[in-house]
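Progress against Task 2.4 (sequence-to-structure conversion) is shown through the following example record, which the project officer requested during the mid-term review.
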Amino acid sequence: MAYRDNTKVIHIGNKVIGGGNPVLIQSMTNTPTENVEATVKQILELEKAGCDIIRSTCPTLEAAKAIGKIKKQIHIPLVADIHFDYKMAIAAMENGADKIRINPGNIGGKDKIMEVVRVAKERNVPIRVGVNSGSLEKDLVEKYGGVTAQGLVESALDKTHIIEDCGYDNMVISIKSSNVMMAVDAHKILAEKTNYPLHVGITEAGTVYSGSVKSAVGLGLILGQGIGDTIRVSLSGNPVEEIKAAKLILRALGLKKDGIDVVSCPTCGRTKIDLIGLANKVETLAASYPYNIKVAVMGCAVNGPGEAKEADLGVAGGNGEGLLIKKGEIIRKVPEDQLLDVLKEELDNWKG
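Structure tokens generated for the chain above:
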């Protein structure tokens, strides 16, 4: 884990990334930022789901000014996403953005970048320098014979040097691609060339189902090498689904300890209860508890009791009924329609 431990520490509002600090989860609102009420409502939902840092687009002055109003009603850092107009970056910072996301390649000439950096310096606002495989510069595409990991890294470093030349190094770097293995290779190369903290994600990953799979593979390979300080799972769906997927990825890698780990069997012909329905309800229920425990939902008497005994709390199904198992001991037998209520009661009164 040498890469993550040695990255530069960056403060984003009341959160910290880099230097071996916990990997934080990000998402992005999909409401019009100008609609303060709708944007705040969505951010509060994301906070409840476990979002650590939130980003909103600022394509207009009205959106940039809304940043200040939104910040007063939320509890996590707010990042302003800027493209093309440097004035929006300045306005967003003047209205309290905790970080800005820009691509120095499309924000304007050197003088405009210097203006953005000047305000960032005055307010100590971190800058996320973003590079996307879909917008890689033509000269780098030609140099490397197409869009490649090496081209992405060179583009990202070129852009960080632009900011550094303005006398500023309060930065986070992101290099994103929808090609999983290209993203993996690019992050490996970049981590060896810089100590700036890295924002990791597989861009345009897809729908909730396919995007979660692609993100799990890509982020798993990258984070598993000790690379990455903050992540976003980019999905075409409700942003809350991004948080759910990100939490599961981090837990699977041992990078997130809080929250209940729900395990369930895949079912077979022996299953005599609605195990699939119960498992989904248990997963939804468990998301609202902070305990670092394992809850097992098993479908039959063959492997169920044994697997459930290895968990802190679990149920093993029978014929229209199930066993409640706690800390390896069978507590009682209850009808199928009471299994969820019994688990909730145990979680409500959990003392470890």
